[in-house]
Design goal:
The chain is an alpha+beta fold. The chain is about 25% helix and about 35% strand. The strands form 2 sheets. Strands 1, 2, 3, 4, 5, 6, 7, 8 and 9 form a 9-stranded mixed β-sheet that branches. A hairpin with a 2-residue loop joins strand 7 and strand 8. Helix 1 packs across helix 5 and helix 3 crosses helix 5.
Length: about 260
């Protein structure tokens, strides 16, 4: 499926993304858009640079997984310069997920969020986010937010693509891969504007309303618990119940997999 860069530029428009100046690099096939964008950054590409591929041969995800991302999906990475404290790095994923989810819900697509990095539609995975950072002196001067969203590509049993979901609508709110890319970019940047220790509480309240894991029973280290929320630094909050006492623990991203059985 060919991708029309000029159409994307028109759809993104002249919105105020200061201080970022968006620039787009579109490729037919890449091992990974995140990998390519880091190469561009090392060559001098500025924050606001976007890399898009029509397919990936070695897409990267959580837990170090790699997979082939088939033609027809959205595979996009955006360079940012957050200057966040390194301890708050998970906020980039949290805010990006919230921003994209909210942007799609504004189009009447009932997106929910699965902690820490997945977009959920009708109980199935629509897309995922992989944030990568570089740290210097305890700060994050450079980051790449990578997003994969199923548009018209084949998906596994636990997945769903957006084109099939919208197929029965007479006036679908998204009509092309380029429109989906524009909405996704705006969503990332909307989240990015709130990504700071001072503003994260505003996002967190809205994020919690979209969290599909909230209230779910899980087992942690052999102990039963219930998911009650997410901390401002992106950790999962789990309430553990024993015979004698109720306690709460926080689980860092990348240390537990919640699956798709709920």
């Amino acid at each position: 499926m060919a991708f029309d860069r000029k159409k994307l530029e028109f759809l993104v428009g002249t919105h105020n993304y200061a201080p970022l100046q968006l620039s787009f690099h579109v490729f037919d096939t890449l091992p990974s858009t995140n990998q390519k964008l880091w190469e561009l950054i090392d060559q001098g590409a500025a924050p606001g640079t976007v890399a898009i591929a029509t397919q990936q041969t070695s897409g990267r995800g959580q837990w170090g997984r790699q997979w082939h991302s088939a033609d027809g999906g959205l595979y996009l990475s955006l360079a940012l310069a957050p200057n966040l404290p390194a301890l708050n790095s998970a906020q980039l994923t949290l805010c990006s997920a919230w921003g994209i989810g909210t942007a799609l819900r504004d189009r009447n697509i009932p997106i929910l969020l699965k902690w820490p990095n997945d977009l959920i539609l009708k109980g199935r995975k629509l897309g995922g986010i992989l944030t990568e950072t570089r740290v210097q002196q305890g700060k994050i001067p450079k980051a790449v937010v990578g997003v994969g969203i199923n548009w018209a590509n084949p998906v596994p049993e636990t997945g769903i693509n957006l084109e099939s979901f919208l197929g029965n609508l007479s006036e679908p709110p998204i009509t092309s891969l380029e429109m989906l890319a524009a909405i996704t970019i705006r969503g990332i940047l909307s989240g990015y504007q709130h990504c700071s220790p001072e503003r994260i509480d505003t996002v967190l309240a809205s994020y919690m309303e979209l969290l599909n894991n909230r209230g779910r029973a899980i087992i942690v280290d052999g102990s039963p618990g219930v998911i009650v929320g997410v901390t401002p630094t992106g950790d999962l909050r789990v309430r553990l119940q024993s015979v004698a006492v109720t306690t709460e623990m926080c689980i860092k991203p990348g240390t537990i997999s919640l699956g798709y059985d709920s």
